[in-house]
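Researcher: Sequence recovery benchmark, item below. Answer with residues only.
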């Protein structure tokens, strides 16, 4: 219990002064795959679920679903996470994880960082929940083996996890597909108003942000995308959580550094 109580007063993982080292020449990530998110989201929302099989791992119930636009053949495979299948947590409101998952997707889209697969909220066999496009990973390559070859993509994920306050960035939540594209999945534990950041992405701790990351964040925050997104987020999470999201954006733009991570509370617990 002492460990849990301490989390309520954990400091923000950005440094209190301007002494961060420069990030060593991390280039901008390659262009994301050319998929039509709007089209796929419409299909995920409207297609009939014709198959539903439980997935064996995870603390919450999730299902692989086959979706058909014709009512016969399976056109898409998705991951369905119903509200009813969410296990109660001591620090997140019950039944809120699917909304946080969708809020993270909408945030990535507003930022122009399209590393989260298309995600929608819809009814399914077990009630309302999220359905996310299934991305088939490269099963022959695991996160520790490819992380050093994809530092640009991971640096962007690290910033996203800070601003959305991701409490659960496990290695298994970073996928490399067969075409070499990096994807981020499982964002149900995000947007809490208290400091919750836990991540396996530790390469950049305390380094100064690359200029292209600063440019992306400034374009998002000082332009129209943030204002529109904030209105949308207030339908998914609390107003205090939206205000905390704004505070984190302002803070990282002021200090322009990657979050400082410790070796205990900042590391998520893996399944293996």
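Model:
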């Amino acid at each position: 219990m002492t460990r849990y109580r301490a989390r309520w007063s954990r400091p923000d993982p950005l440094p209190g002064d301007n002494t961060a080292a420069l990030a060593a020449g991390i280039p901008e990530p390659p262009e994301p795959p050319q998929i039509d998110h709007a089209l796929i989201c419409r299909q995920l929302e409207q297609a009939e679920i014709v198959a539903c099989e439980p997935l064996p791992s995870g603390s919450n119930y999730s299902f692989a679903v086959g979706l058909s636009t014709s009512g016969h053949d399976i056109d898409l495979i998705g991951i369905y996470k119903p509200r009813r299948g969410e296990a109660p947590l001591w620090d997140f409101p019950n039944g809120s994880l699917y909304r946080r998952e969708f809020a993270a997707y909408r945030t990535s889209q507003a930022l122009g960082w399209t590393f989260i697969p298309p995600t929608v909220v819809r009814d399914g066999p077990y009630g309302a929940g999220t359905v996310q496009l299934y991305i088939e990973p490269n099963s022959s390559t695991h996160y520790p083996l490819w992380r050093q070859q994809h530092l640009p993509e991971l640096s962007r994920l690290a910033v996203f996890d800070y601003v959305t306050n991701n409490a659960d960035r496990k290695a298994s939540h970073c996928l490399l597909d067969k075409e070499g594209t990096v994807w981020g999945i499982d964002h149900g534990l995000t947007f809490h108003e208290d400091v919750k950041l836990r991540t396996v992405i530790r390469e950049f701790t305390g380094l100064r942000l690359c200029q292209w990351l600063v440019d992306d964040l400034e374009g998002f925050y000082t332009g129209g995308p943030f204002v529109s997104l904030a209105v949308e987020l207030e339908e998914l999470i609390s107003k205090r959580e939206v205000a905390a999201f704004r505070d984190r954006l302002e803070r990282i733009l002021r200090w322009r550094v990657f979050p400082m991570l410790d070796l205990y509370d900042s590391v998520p617990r893996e399944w293996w």
